[in-house]
Structures are given as C-alpha cells and as structure tokens.
Amino acid sequence: MGVALVVLVVVAVVALFAAGTSIRVVQQYEHGIVFRFGQVQRADGLRPGAVRTPGLTAIIPIVERMQKVNQQTVTMNVPGQEGITQDNVSVRVDAVVYFRVVDAIKAIVNVQDYGNAVSQIGQTSLRSVIGQTDMQELLGEREKINARLRRIMDEITRDPWGVLIERVEIKDVSLPEGMKRSMARQAEAERERRARIIAADGEFQASKRLAAAAEIMSQDPASLQLRLLQTVVDVAAEKNSTLVMPLPVEVLRFFERVAPDAAAPRSGGGDRPGLAERLARAEQELAKSTEETAGLASPEEVPPVIGLDEPKRRPDEPSADSDAGSDAGEEPDDGSTPSP
User: Which domains does the chain have, with CATH numbers?
Assistant: First the structure.
C-alpha cells in the first residue's frame, strides 16, 4: 500500500507538471506561433495548428514551443535626425511611427527584432526625406511629407516582415538660431511694409475728405470763424496757463483784397466748376482710390513716386544724347560744301 501510494503521488505530480507546461492562454490581442521541433512550416506550406487563436490552447511539452506575438498598434518615437535640406538649411527633425503586426509568422521568422528594425528604417527614411525637401515644404506641408515617409517605410516592412505602418507623424522641426532670426526679420519687414501702405492709404483718403470740407467752408467765411472759435474752446479745455490766439481770418482776407495782383486775371481763363460738381468729383476720386489701394499686397503694386521713379526707355528707342549727336554730325545733302 505504501509503495502504490507513492507511485500515485509521483504520477499525479508528473501529470500536473505536464499540464502546467502544456496549457497556454493566448490573449485577445495576441497570436500564438507554435514551433514543432523548431519548424513552423513544411515544404508544402504552413503546418496545421502552427497559429493559435486567442483562448486556451495546449502544446506538447518538449516537442512543441509557442511564441506569442502582440498585434496591437505600437507607438515608437524616432530619434531626432539632423540633415541638410535641398536649399542647404541645417535642420533637426523628430518623428513618431505607428505600426502593428499583420502577419505574425513573417514578423517572427523573417526578422529577428521587428521593433528595432522598424526604428532603424524610420531613421534612415527620415534622413532621406529631409535631403529631398526644402525648408518651406518641411515647415508648411507636413501632411505631404508624412505620407511620403509612410509609403517608403511600408514598402520595406509590409511584405517581407508582415508589419503594417499605419501612420508617420513629424513632431518637431528645429531650425538654427540664425535662420530663426532671419525669418523673424523677414516677417517684421513684411508687417512694416503693410502698415506703411495702410497708413499712406489712410492719409490719402483723409486728404480727400479735408479737401471736400475746405470746399464747403470756403463758400461761407463765417464757418471759418466758427471753426476758429471751436479750436480755441478745445485748447482752453486743457486748463493751460498760456492761450495762443491765431491771426483772425478777416485780416488775411483784407490783405488778399489789397494785394496789387489780386485783380489780375489768373492764367488759364476757364470757369471754375461749382461746389456741387467739385464735391461729387472728390467723392468719386475717393471711392476710386479706396478700391485701388485696398488690395495692395506686394511691392510691385505700390504706385510710382513722381520725380523718383523714372519711366524706363525701350531698347529700340534712341536716347536724347544720341539724337543730338546724330543731328550735329549730319551733313547737308544739297551738294554744298560746308564752310570751315
């Protein structure tokens, strides 16, 4: 009885040990690859039972070995890569890669460490893309560069390794400090150019309004006196200790009447248009200038300055010096000999 009991205990222990080494649990996000005597495939193709689905499964101890493959999406940071763009600008680019295993057998059999392999492929592909793009494209067209990186990496990893590259994102682009300062100066100069154009446009429109107001006030001298008194009231409201009184307008009118050339007719002799016509003309010019100057966006659209921007002469148009020289060098064709 004692010997039989010992044998039963030994058999039970061996059975429990065999069950513990043969029973495996495959998670929902995993696939199990079973190697039988180190083989997962036969000459005619995949061995039956080589891939185990999620759940409870059993293998033959010592004869079979199972390796689990995670099929979740893996997020991998690509270390920052330094390179020179197509327009000779040194940059440092960081990226992140999202990938997952779609063929567990290829990921285990064809490559030793598919995670490290994907990381190395990401670094080399990122360096290659940096050298083929310029700085403006690298900063402003991220989606295009991300798609190019994904296509390059997926062609290398999908069929041979069974790894699908789902997405590649560029996280950061680091520029040299000198390039950052140059871009800041360029943006500041562009903003200043726009501000000056807008200020000049405002001065132009204000001058039109002031001209129209002057036309109205010139018809009635009393309005000028009222405007003068209003200015005095505005100055006195500041509680200043000194009050400056300008010269009355009537004194200026008196000097205009007694001037000796006041009665002389003006050159030109045409009738001056009426007030209504001049106001209408001023309103039309103001509306036209507003439409023309509202859309200035480049230095080529700024109107030329009279006296500074001279019109360019066409190549086939002779200059004034050449015309004078040709006239001086011509000989009379009437047969007479020029006098010495």
Answer: 14-63 (no CATH), 74-175 (3.30.479.30), 182-256+276-294 (no CATH)
